[in-house]
Write a structure and sequence with these properties.
The chain is an all-alpha fold. The chain has helices spanning 5-26, 30-52, 55-80, 86-91, 95-116, 130-138, 142-166. The longest helix is centred in the middle third of the chain and has 26 residues, at 55-80.
């Protein structure tokens, strides 16, 4: 790998993303874990903005994920009103399964990206915007797009089932 300023910028922000992602998993308190996820989403937006030259994608990342979804997560966490120790007891049986699943997803993503990554792009070198993103999503990555929509639907059904069980 050739050392140039863009590589160093990428490595710095990639390290911050990894550290905040580890914080999401490692921190036991749900509110602090959600705040670590918020940091992760904002740093990812910086990567989109600085390295891809994609301000629209960075803006959507901050508005939708860091804004709306994180407010929703924090609202649910506060609404659950967990006492100290309750959230620790609930997570213990799932830790190994979640860790192995996260490692498998990470390995799969590295495998996919290794064949497609063409190097680091300085800002404005490619002009990747909303039109390019939508073209890629609805042509080349349509299967992944549909799988994510099914995953979101199943997660919503699970949330409704859990909420209904508690009522």
């Amino acid at each position: 790998m050739v050392i140039n300023p863009w590589n160093l910028v990428f490595l710095f922000f990639a390290l911050l993303v990894l550290l905040s992602a580890v914080g999401v998993v490692a921190i036991r308190h749900p509110v602090y874990s959600a705040l670590s996820l918020l940091a992760n989403l904002c740093i990812t937006a910086v990567l989109y903005l600085v390295l891809m030259g994609a301000p629209f994608i960075a803006m959507i990342q901050v508005i939708v994920y860091a804004g709306a979804i994180m407010v929703f997560f924090l609202f649910v966490i506060m609404l659950m009103n967990l006492r100290k120790g309750e959230y620790e007891e609930r997570m213990v049986p799932w830790r190994l399964l979640l860790g192995v699943s996260a490692a498998a997803v990470f390995a799969f993503q590295v495998f996919i990206l290794a064949g497609e990554w063409r190097g680091f792009l300085p800002p404005g070198a490619h002009g990747f915007g909303a039109k390019d993103l939508s073209h890629l999503i609805f042509t080349r990555y349509i299967l992944a797009f549909e799988l994510v929509s099914v995953l979101i639907f199943v997660a919503a059904l699970g949330a409704v089932a859990l909420a209904k069980k508690k009522l």
